[in-house]
Design brief:
- Helices cover about 40% and strands about 10% of the residues.
- The N and C termini lie far apart (about 100 Å).
- Helix 7 packs parallel to helix 9.
- The chain is elongated.
- It contains 9 helices and 7 strands.
- The protein is α/β, with parallel strands linked by helices and about 280 residues long.
- The strands form 2 sheets. A 5-stranded parallel beta sheet has the order 4-3-5-6-7, with helices on both faces.
Length: about 280
């Protein structure tokens, strides 16, 4: 059987010569991009101008006053619980370098040193929610736990004014779960200042299915917490501010008489320099 003849598309000599001539006549790539001395100077001037703009923007970012920027860029709010300057003065907006997935929604940005910054306007809303939640309970059926030393002064003052029982320094293990203990007690709400340090109280509350109100920093997880109040729970000023606002509203709601002042919750409040 004869093989089929293979046909190739063979270009003629004239076609090949025409293509070669076209290539010869086309300008070289180097000639297309070659610039005149004037063009080079103009291009260099544009690049220098762009570099200066970038440099100035970097310098401006370094000089940013974070407290001022937070106040300017956050949504302006009216009728906050205290003036926005007081929130900043108490450092309630400063978190930690760690941000958990649970607390990421409340973070506004990071400072140059890596510390997270809470959205202060949002904190005011969450404190209001915490106030509404706390006001639902009778003071005799609430337990406040604060193991962090920075919060002892404010926690004790909170207890004194509201009549809510408080445990500072050490939380008696099993006080909510072991009926055989002499100091066993029943409560309708456990209020803690730090889910990590006060984890024993949190675990006991979860075992007996008692709701938990907690101040939560950026490094805290909220598992087992019924109502959280985002904010700095490492600073005496911040804890004092939050407990002051809660106590003031709680006393008003339950018609508890007493003289409540921010100076009783935060040492040297009058001497603290407000942000500019």
């Amino acid at each position: 059987m004869a093989k089929a003849k293979k046909t190739d598309n063979v270009e003629t000599k004239e076609v090949v010569e025409a293509k070669v001539e076209k290539v010869k006549k086309s300008p070289k790539k180097s000639e297309e991009v070659e610039l005149t001395p004037e063009d080079k100077k103009a291009k260099l001037a544009k690049l220098m101008e762009k570099a200066k703009k970038l440099e100035s923007s970097v310098e401006e970012e370094k000089k940013v006053d974070l407290k001022k920027k937070v106040k300017e860029e956050e949504t302006e709010k009216e009728n906050t619980l205290v003036p926005m300057d007081d929130y900043l003065k108490a450092s309630i907006h400063l978190g930690t370098r760690v941000i958990t997935p649970d607390m990421r929604r409340y973070v506004y940005r990071r400072r140059a040193d890596g510390l997270a910054v809470f959205n202060t306007a949002l904190l005011d809303d969450k404190i209001r929610e915490g106030i509404s939640y706390l006001n639902k309970f009778n003071p005799s059926r609430i337990l406040l736990v604060c193991k962090r030393e920075a919060g002892w002064k404010a926690a004790n003052k909170f207890s004194e004014l509201t009549g809510i029982k408080v445990f500072t320094k050490k939380y008696p293990a099993g006080i909510l779960t072991n009926t055989n203990l002499d100091n066993f007690m029943e409560t309708d709400l456990v209020f803690i200042c730090d889910p990590w340090l006060d984890k024993n109280a949190l675990m006991d509350a979860m075992r007996v299915r008692v709701p938990v109100l907690s101040i939560c920093d950026t490094n805290n997880f909220t598992q087992g917490i019924t109502q959280s109040i985002p904010g700095n729970n490492k600073s005496a000023k911040s804890i004092g501010m939050i407990l002051f606002l809660l106590a003031r509203a709680f006393m008003e709601h339950h018609k508890i008489e007493g003289d409540i002042k921010i100076q009783d919750f935060i040492d040297d409040w009058d001497n603290l320099i407000p942000p500019k």
